[in-house]
Amino acid sequence: MRALLLSFCLMLTALVAGAAPLTPDQIAAYVKPPLLLGEQIDETGVFSLIDVYGKPAGYVFETEPLAPLPGFSGAPVNLLVMLDASGSFIEVRLIEQNEPIFVSGLGVAPFEQFLEQYRGLNIATPMVVGTPYGNSGGGASALTYLDGVTKATASVRIAHETVLAASLAVARERMQGIATAPPRAPDPDHDEPLDWAALVAQGIASHHVVSNAQVQAGFEGTLWAGDDAQALADPQAPFVDLWILDLGPPAIARAVLSAQTLEELQQFQTLSPHDEPILLIETARHGLVGEDFVRNTAPDLISAEQGGLPVALRDADLFVELAPGLPEGRAMILRADRRLGFDPASDWDLTLQVQRAHGSFQPVIGARSFSFTHATPERFFLSETGPTALPPWQEALRGRAFDIGLLTIFLGLLIPALLLGQSRLAGLRAYVPLRLGVLAVTLGFVGWWAQGQLSVVTPLAVLRGALDGGSLAFLLYDPVSLLLWGAAVLGFLLWGRGLFCGWLCPYGAMQEFAHHLGRGLHLPRLPLPDVWDRRLKWVKYAVLVGLVAVVLLAPGGLETAAEVEPFKTAITTFFLREWCFALYAGAWIALSMVTFKGFCRYVCPLGALMAIGGLLRMRHWIPRRPECGSPCQLCRVRCNYRAIRPGGEIDYDECFQCLDCVTIHDSPNQCVPLILARRRTTQGRQNLL
User: Fold this and answer.
1) What is the structure's pLDDT at 100?
2) What's 452's DSSP letter?
């Protein structure tokens, strides 16, 4: 016992200092060629990334200054994020984390493997942690699912929200033109009969004309004013006669393209689902591209912008054959990436550059630009945000719906049975096997399957969050544990600590099974003397106070100090940890074979917190008689928890709701006052005879 207490003290004195921000040299070590670390560009620690020519290529930053979302330890997860100029993740690396499950439970390797999934994804891509339910919809607007980490889904969800929050903050501030919300995409299921006349009448095909006179006016008074004889000879003739159509909606594409071109377009959309194809038909003199134009590149005479920000256009490299009845001229299909902020259902401007050359030898080039506004009706597109991810707490609820449903049924049966049928339950001849069956569900389902082992780390993280003024949203990431906390609080009002400690604690159930195994093996019982039992019951409060002190004075050491709880080893990782942790957790189980639930009674800081919560108890729920304690001591002698005082009163702070004393109290064959009363009645009848 002294060795165990010494180990607790060592754990409680472990102080881990918080890490300072990375230095530029440390960050540079993470940046791989051909990229280089640039200058720090703001006080939040955002650095630029540059290429070998010194041109901007992206950003690198730590998440903690930008998105300090608290984890289950109360401390944020700090990650290093690298984004390229288009908003795609180059790398996400783990810098510091204090999540209990990853500190020494599963280790950091699964966490690092989770972070590798971000590589190549764009910040505008809707992403969630979990698995798709039913038909995900497919196509450009479907959610991207990141595989979580078994036994640590809640922690990686917090990390995921940290990555997104920090990255979007940088994108909004530094990466104008990058979409920070899911893009609006064409609705593949929208269909309506359209022909060229309908497209023109509804403005779906917008028509824009610039005459020779308008172009001439642009060059009037310049070196190039007399360099277009055709414009001077026929000023009213069109220089630009342009039609603009968005081919993303299938109904529009079918109305304007030949069958072969439509098939090629559909193949293009399959390979490039984020690109919006734009059809341009020019029937006058402009011609859309210059003599040096190269297919599959950005045309030098065409540009676009939306909302004051540039829209990158590039040739889609598709041979264009139009349907019969369309204007004849030069036709080409350009593509704009919706992930980079382009919204085809909102107004955007296409600009054509008109060039003139003055002189025959090394001519001087002059240019004027003409802009045209276009938009496609919203009915052809999905909602602006598409199938966005649910809020994290809703996603967590959906991901754990099966477990939550079973746990709700379990609690819905257990709590009413204990509240309304306590005496009937305790009086069953098969009560002990029934109780062990319930504890088997607690250990197998609540603990090992649903990972619902509560820990003192959670309320301590709440304390830290409250002191730091941080969010407590991390509680919503683990709805199973939150439901168990709700049941525990309800138990405080009805029974004290007994509901959770006696029925819902997986590690407590494991110790109780060890006790029965010890009885089956006929091992001796080694109860402590009463005086030591009373003294050692205060140790758990000292451990709790020590953990609170760590939170207040050295919060970085909480994860180390919290190893006083063997729950992570025995329940979360099923003893698959370093030998010292497994030995520590197993030692308490072995001790329970000879000393009943020693950890729960003497050391458990969560039990101490539950006992304090039990002060909310509103009733004395264990029946007593005047004879209890004097002269009868049977319940007290048989109470494995020693939760009955010599006078017969119940010490509810130490009661685990095993109901053994209720069984004795209600049994005419065990309760001494009932036996004596029956004997007196029988003797009185005999005397009358």
Assistant:
1) 67
2) -
Q: What is the pTM of this model?
A: 0.61
Structure tokens at 40: 């720090």
Tens of pLDDT along 480-525? 999 999 999 999 999 999 999 999 999 999 999 999 999 999 999 9
The single-letter code of the amino acid at 595 is T
- Find the angle CA(241)-CA(242)-CA(248) to the nearest 5 degrees: 165
What phi and psi, each to the nearest 5 degrees, are found at residue 189?
-95, -5
pLDDT digits (tens, 9 = 90+) for 149-181: 666 667 787 888 888 888 888 887 777 656 555
- The residues near 594 (Cβ < 8 Å, ≥ 6 apart) are 518, 523, 524, 525, 526
Q: What is the pLDDT of residues 343-358, one digit of tens each?
A: 899 999 999 989 898 8
The two beta strands, 56-62 and 78-84, are antiparallel
* Start-end of H helices in 495-602: 498-499, 506-520, 530-536, 539-553, 558-561, 567, 579-591, 598-602
How many other CB atoms are there within 10 angstroms of residue 651's CB atom?
16
Q: How far is 224 from 222, CA to CA, in rounded Å?
A: 5
Here the contacts of 644-651 (C-beta below 8 Å, separation 24 or greater) are 648/624, 649/624, 650/620, 650/622, 650/624
- Over residues 390-397, the mean pLDDT reads 71
What would the pLDDT profile of 33-87 be if each residue is shown by its tens digit? 888 898 888 888 899 898 877 788 889 999 988 888 777 666 788 999 999 888 8
Alpha carbon distances (Å) from 657 to 517, 650, 654: 20, 11, 9
Phi (first) and psi of residue 55, to 5 degrees: -85, 145
Encoding tokens for residue 104? 């020494």
Q: What is the DSSP string of 590-610?
A: HHTTTSTTHHHHHT-HHHHHH
Q: How far apart are CA 650 and CA 555, in angstroms?
A: 37
Mean pLDDT of 242-266: 94
What are residue 33's phi and psi, to 5 degrees? Answer: -60, 150
CA distance 689 to 686: 5
d(CA 363, CA 374): 34
For residue 289, what pLDDT band results from cuts at 50, 70 and 90?
Answer: confident
How long is the chain?
Answer: 689
Torsion, CA 599, CA 601, CA 602, CA 603, rounded to 10: 50
Q: What is the pLDDT of residue 1?
A: 39
The H-or-E segment that residue 58 falls in is strand 56-62
If phi over 0 gives left and psi between -120 and 50 gives alpha, with beta otherwise, what is residue 137?
left
Give the residue from 623, 628, 621 showing the smallest Cα distance to 673: 628
Long-range CB contact pairs, 499-504, < 8 A, 24+: 499/415, 499/418, 499/657, 500/454, 500/610, 501/600, 501/607, 501/610, 501/656, 501/657, 502/655, 502/656, 502/657, 502/658, 503/414, 503/418, 503/438, 503/439, 503/442, 503/657, 504/442, 504/446
